[in-house]
Write a structure and sequence with these properties.
5-stranded parallel β-sheet; binds 3-acetylpyridine adenine dinucleotide; 30% helix; 16 helices; alpha/beta; 7-stranded mixed β-sheet
């Protein structure tokens, strides 16, 4: 197999992080090739184009903050824009920075292997490219490998099937159709409220009832837009100093929920519920996610709301979540619970009546057959480890990354970015990526750190940089400890791999807040957690 081209760096994935990485490296004069499986930029916002898809972090912080010019030139329409608007923004950035000339679209990574002789990565694609690069930077996304339940007989279904994250570019027509949606996470909740407006009948198949916080999506006034554009440096500072990188949300009462009387708490929760500002409900009191008793007060408030909103008592009962609120990735929705009052919407509780099989006409549960024209899988992802473990990445001695991690049973990284045995490889969105923080601002921190690290490596005449076992062990222990102390340890979700049967359980992401996370990266700027192999005759100083 002949190597056809050589680059300084190969990046894989043209989402927010891959695009920014490409921009920084290219500005510094590196030769870079970015491979992207889709036909355009946008990553998650390219793939997840299901009806109702929109962002749940306010747009003032769900955008790049590295360029004041981009910030000034782009105008957002609303606080929580739709997928198509975010995708337009990605296209705008790609055009503005002229990124496309170094991106090869419709090209899927098939393997990447470190060659210890040449000290280069050999990268192969499904389009037949075989290229070589010193640096290999997979930016594959954390939630990019769709997961769907293994339903017996699905291949016989004669209607249409879709997964929310592999939605076609053409509009899917639900008018007059009997539709099933399986899954009630962030994607399911948005798809359900949207599809219910069009379908003749919508049946929701729910495995775990969710706490869904109400969100409204006000248009931005010209004054708000002006303010966002004119105060960019201040906004950027606030984002970087905020505990989840999204300063719209504030901790309203910095004391325990148990310190207020039940009446006072009720009034306060009611106020926040009526604000309809999604995540804000979880930042009501200081201890909602750290004290189970405080948590129960908010959980009970939401359950009472569900019973008030949903008119049919059986449906309401089936919608009542029992886990600790905030213990799964929070879900926000507009009129989600109200949707179940529509005559064309019904709910199947899979815990009571599981799906037995699929026939050519529809889905058979333990109670009987439901006929459908369309089945929508909103059933999530093989998250965090999935994309990298499926990517055929081999480091020193031909070891596969998935084997280094023992299929996920022994997950170890340094900073979620570097791996022992995989020199000159930097993974942007992989295991140990922060889960409870605005992903765009996290991406910026990681990309900037990788960029500075590569510059350091080049300035010091280094051929190979590799995390030490000690650094990897220390970071992994830290990530696991923070995870074990968090609410996420107590609830089943994709954060721990519990969404997929048979997937090893563990802390797939970093659950420390944005400030802790930045501190870890700042500390790593001394590069003491790495070994360096100098180019011949070059001494490396740390
Ligand atoms: O996936 P999910 P998602 N049989 O894993 C159910 C981001 N995102 O695509 O809870 C039946 O959350 C599963 O049930 P359970 C965001 O980070 C952001 O919705 O595991 N059901 C669950 O109900 C989000 O967290 C935005 O018991 C099965 C659902 O399918 C992440 O992407 C929008 C099943 C999957 O929910 C993933 O969200 C969308 C089975 N075998 C996504 N397996 C915004 O910014 C799974 N389920 C707004």
């Amino acid at each position: 197999m002949t190597i056809s081209k050589e680059f300084d760096a190969v990046i894989v994935g043209a989402g927010f992080s891959g695009m920014y990485m490409l921009h920084l490296l290219r500005e510094e004069g590196f030769s870079v090739r970015l491979y992207e499986a889709g036909s355009n930029v946008g990553g998650t916002w390219y793939w997840n184009r299901y009806p109702g898809a929109r962002c749940d972090i306010p747009t003032e912080s769900y955008c790049y903050t590295f360029s004041e010019e981009i910030h000034r030139e782009w105008t957002w329409s609303s606080v929580y824009p739709e997928q198509s608007e975010i995708l337009d923004y990605c296209n705008f950035v790609a055009n503005k920075l002229d990124l496309r000339r170094d991106i090869q679209f419709n090209t899927r990574l098939t393997s990447a292997e470190y060659d210890e002789k040449s000290k280069k990565w050999k990268v192969c694609t499904g389009e037949g490219d075989i290229v070589q690069a010193k640096y290999f930077i997979p930016a594959l996304g954390n939630v990019s490998i769709p997961h769907a339940p293994n339903i017996k007989g699905l291949e016989h279904f004669q209607g249409e099937t879709y997964h929310t994250s592999r939605w076609p570019h053409e509009k899917v027509d639900f008018k007059g159709k009997r539709v099933a949606v399986i899954g009630t996470g962030s994607s399911g909740v948005q798809a359900i409220t949207s599809i219910s407006k069009e379908a003749e009948h919508l049946t929701v198949f729910q495995r775990t009832p969710q706490f869904v916080s109400p969100v409204k999506n006000p248009l931005l006034s010209p004054d708000q837009v002006k303010e966002m554009k004119n105060n960019f440096p201040e906004l950027r500072r606030k984002i970087r100093e905020h505990f989840i990188g999204a300063p719209t949300f504030d901790l309203r009462r910095p004391y325990s929920a148990l310190e207020d009387t039940p009446e006072e708490r009720q009034r306060f929760y009611e106020e926040l519920w009526n604000e309809q500002n999604g995540f804000q409900l979880l930042f009501s009191y200081l201890d909602i996610t750290v004290n189970d008793e405080a948590n129960a007060t908010l959980a009970e408030f939401v359950r009472t709301k569900i019973k008030e909103i949903v008119k049919d008592p059986d449906t309401a009962e089936n919608l009542l979540p029992t886990y600790l609120i905030g213990g799964k990735r929070p879900v926000v929705g507009t009129n989600y619970y109200e949707t179940y009052n529509q005559e064309n919407v019904s709910l199947v509780n899979l815990k009571n009546t599981p799906i037995v099989e699929c026939t050519k006409k529809g889905l058979v549960t333990s109670e009987g057959e439901h006929e459908f024209d369309i089945i929508v899988f909103a059933s999530g992802f093989d998250a965090m480890t999935g994309p990298l473990m499926k990517a055929n990445i081999r480091g020193r001695n031909g070891i596969f990354l998935k084997d280094k991690w023992d299929g996920g049973r022994n997950l170890k990284t340094f900073l979620g970015v570097c791996n022992v045995g995989f020199p000159n490889m930097f993974t942007i969105t992989g295991p140990h990526f922060p889960l409870t923080t605005n992903a765009i601002t996290v991406n910026e921190v990681i990309v900037e750190w990788i960029f500075d690290c590569i510059k350091y490596v080049e300035e010091h005449g280094v051929e190979e940089i590799e995390a030490t076992s000690e650094a990897e062990e220390t970071w992994t222990n830290h990530a696991n400890e923070v995870g074990e102390q968090s609410i996420y340890a107590k609830v089943d979700s994709w954060y721990t791999g519990a969404n997929i049967e048979g997937k090893p359980r563990g802390f797939l992401g970093y659950t420390g807040d944005y400030l802790m996370f930045q501190e870890q990266f700042n500390n790593a700027r001394d590069y003491k957690g790495f070994t360096f192999t100098p180019k011949q005759n070059v001494a490396v100083e740390k």
